[in-house]
Amino acid sequence: MFTSTLSPLLILLSLAHVQTFTPFITSLPSRILSSTSSTRSFSNSSTQLYQYFDNESDRLRTRSESIYPENIIDLIPSSHKKYKKIISNRLENIRNLKVNNEFDYINKYNAHLSLSTSIILPNFTKKGWSLQRIDEPIIEQLRDFLTAGIAKNETILESELIGNNEIIKGSQPRFLPLSSDFKERILKTLLPYHEQFANTSLLPSRAYGLRVYTPNSVLSMHTDKPERNVIGSIIHLGGDEEWGLVVEDLSGEVHEVFMNPGDAFFYESAKVYHGRIKPFNGSFYCGVFCHYVPEVWGEWDREGHVAIERSWADEGGGESELKVDGSGVLEKGGGWGEEEWIVWSDGEIVKKDYKRAWGDAWEEKFNALLSHKVEFGGCNFPQNVVTEDGVKLGAWVKKQRANKERLSAERIEKLNNAGFVWRKYESAWQANFLKLLDYKKEFGDVLVPERFVTDDGKRLGAWVTKQRFRRERLSGEQREKLEVSGFVWDASAQAGERLKGEEKKKNGGEREETLSRRVGSWDDGTHVHLFRGNRYNDRWLELWEWKYIRLLEFKEEFGHVLVPTDYVTKDGRRLGKWASDQRTMKKNDRLSVERFEKLEGAHFVWDAQEAAWEDMFDKLLKHKEEFGDLFVPKDYVTKDGRRLGNWVGLQRKNKKNDVLSAERVEKLNKIGLVWGVLEAAWEANYLKLVEYTEEFGHALVPRDPPYVTEDGANLGGWVGVQRNNRDIISAERVERLNILNFVWDPHEAAWEENWKKLLEYKEEFGDVLVTTNVGTTLGNWVCLQRQLKKNDRLSAQRFERLEGVDFVWDPHESSWEGYYEKLLRYIEENGDALVPISYVTEDGVILGTWVQQQRQWKKKESISAERVKKLEAVDFVWGDLLDAQWEDYYEKLLRYIEENGDALVLRSFVTEDGFNLGNWVGSQRQCKTNGIISAERVEKLEEVDFVWNPLVAQWDSNYEALLKYQEEFGNALVMKGYVTADGVKLGQWVSDQRQSKKDGRLSDERFGKLEGVDFVWNVPEWKAEHKLIKK
């Protein structure tokens, strides 16, 4: 999030989708993708403006060799008209920036740099950001680190750590610095999340934090520098108030993102504009920041300089609406306001209105309204209308209506002049009223049938009916217009008026044509009786016959004539409504005998409810035949869509309320319907318990976790309910459960089960000293009995039963005696009680640790006198075991000296009983060198001529061998390969002394001793002097 002054506007133009720049990116020079990103920072000096070039001429020469067009706006595809328009306007504002001093000069260059970099920088995602939950242990570690740091007041001002941050206004944040190792772990852990977001391989760049914002902090809108911050994340760790992160995505929409602790905001940090522009109202808000770069990432910062237009320093002819403020950006008029953001919470949009970040969006959409007014025939756009360039015009029109009281007088006037419709349905009402007048002109009245449709498809009859229902909600002007036209508010009065009007018609042909026109749209099933007996009855007879034919077709297709009330034929005729009308007419004695007989011949159902009941009864019988019972689930639906489960439930309810006829109750009883659904459920579960008992041999069904049968029944839960309800369930059920040896108290049953296991353990091992690792259940149960006895919660009966099997109430006492017996066996085998601390018996008992523990208890006076007495009876060593071991080794050294005549023990020497005496001797020498051996031990060792420096002793021994050689041969000229009778390589040793003298490593003392025996230092000279002949 920290940016240099090189990138104040880096992201402003990156609002297109990924495919926007793909053709351009693939043709970039290879020098971009193969070079290494620069790490140099920009200095606010015009002499250092071109950090990659010597001067402007050098930059322009490089640009002429590049593929960039003169106007970089041309790089944006023409398919992105709206986006291209926004960028063009923004570039014009940058050109219009005034240059009054060196600082303005630098800012203007930076603005151009950010614009060009935004255009050439590739996109990795479609939207540019994503909110995701991170469930990693390292997040909790960071939160713990934050809590501890705040509690200890370890935060420091960020400015003291890295200097002032120019994009943060108001109160400066504080920092809890992270260690380098911690940062590396964060970047490594979160790398896969960032790669998944960016859909590319990444390299860690940096992690920093923890940044702790304080009251009134404001983070300006900004982007990050591409050389180090390409794909990033902000991980929210905690805070006492919500604080929205405002982000402009790659499609130009602005969002305000709210995060919960543990949420991570992933974003293309070098392209997506982001900030926290509302002052923070809480006391603290903390997060950590992670940044990555792609594995193949070119020198995009340098290319941004190359792409800047040639005439960047020229001043434009107008006023600029932009202001560069360090690394942040300000827009005249408040480009990023505090109202109407898209608010996100846990990835879910809760408000969909948004406000564009740049430009006057209202004027843009008003111009779109004017340009599309002709296309839609006015300003009353449907809500879902979106223009070709992406303007949501329908939604904008709706918003103007809703916010009319808050619109300025100037905007209201502009909308009125454009013919804007403030009431959405006003223009539609006027259009339908004109259709009503056309109807009156054609038919002479406004008695429109309910289903009348005009030639152009308008449902005028439905509109007329709606006006009657909405009479009180119509405006006074609308009611007056309808009444002037002769509108009939009472629908029944309209039917009467229609009859009178038809009787007054004189011209039969005209009447027939008019009637035919109206019949085609009337609800003839409803109004057929109104015309019986008049001269037009033949026409209605034809319509009845036509519907009767439709009824026969229905019977042929479905096998019955029980037409649902809402049934409509394929050609839109309401056959169900017509069938219902026939029943009503029969009930009121208004159906002719002829029609009654015809319907009877088709087996017409006069009582639809009875027929429907019989139909569902038949389906219930089929269910029993298929499944073997009548336990129909409540949500069960038959294959043909009938809700049989609901119907069965309704029968039970009707019987309970005494509204089900005796005849129906009898029919349902005969097929075995269970009226009490709970009783049926109990019986079903009892049968499952019987099956469980037959399979497992007992009725102790597990409850935690509950046992579930193969068909999904929670038998364990049901068994638990029976135990809990023992006092309220019937005696009959209790008796039936007892027959299965039902366990009413599972705790008692569990105790008896473990008691049996304890007896089996004693029979196998001869005692009841069960450890916790011998069968988790039994071991824990044994421990529980001891604890219950200690707390006086073990019943006398159980205590007596446990006592009867010699139960061990204090396992520690019994355990000590066992270890003591092991110690006696050790003494018998080894002759002492000096047990090494790592010693383990053949049967796996760690005896050495136990022995050391006795010494510790004795030291702390926490061992009983009785135990001390028993241990001392076997010469137990209470002192430090190391002292005892030293004395033992000293005795072995004395035996070695007695056998070998000296204390020069070889390092690898091991005694016959396995003691590494050579190592011990070496350890004594090392202890003396380091000054950590006692004077007493040094004295004892020196009494037996202990050799503290074996090298010195070895030299003296070889010197003695040389003296013997001189005495035997008369000189000290020892051949190099000569070995004495007792195995001393004297020739090699003599040669080593010559080499030591030559290298200056021979001490004066040793040189003098060798000189005293006429040591030959130069063999050739000595031979020449004595004229010896080489044999």
Write the layout of secondary structure elements.
Elements: H1 22-25, H2 30-34, H3 56-64, H4 81-95, H5 102-120, E1 129-133, H6 137-151, E2 156-157, H7 158-162, E3 168-169, E4 174-175, H8 180-198, E5 202-213, E6 218-222, E7 231-239, E8 245-248, E9 254-258, E10 263-267, E11 273-276, E12 285-294, H9 300-307, E13 322-325, E14 328-331, E15 342-345, E16 348-351, H10 361-376, H11 393-402, H12 409-417, H13 426-443, H14 460-469, H15 476-484, H16 491-504, H17 508-519, H18 524-527, H19 537-558, H20 575-587, H21 593-601, H22 608-627, H23 644-656, H24 662-670, H25 677-696, H26 715-724, H27 731-739, H28 746-765, H29 776-790, H30 796-803, H31 811-830, H32 847-859, H33 865-872, H34 881-900, H35 917-929, H36 935-942, H37 950-969, H38 986-998, H39 1004-1011, H40 1019-1026
Parallel strand pairs: 9-15
Antiparallel strand pairs: 1-10, 2-4, 3-6, 4-5, 5-12, 6-11, 7-10, 7-12, 8-9, 8-11, 13-14, 15-16
The strand order across the widest sheet is: 1-10-7-12-5-4-2
The proportion of strand residues reads 5-15%
Apparent shape: flat
The helix tally amounts to 40
Query: What's the end-to-end separation, in Å?
Result: 89 Å
Bin the helical content.
40-55%
Q: Taking Cα atoms only, what radius of gyration do you get, to the nearest Å? A: 52 Å
β-strand number: 16
The assigned structural class equals alpha+beta
- Overall residue-averaged pLDDT value: 76
Main β sheet profile:
7 strands, antiparallel
Q: Ranges with pLDDT <50 over ≥5 residues? A: 1-48, 332-360, 505-541
Keywords: Signal
Protein name: Helicase-associated domain-containing protein
Domain Helicase-associated: 360-420, 426-487, 543-602, 609-672, 679-742, 747-807, 812-876, 883-946, 953-1015
Signal peptide: 1-20
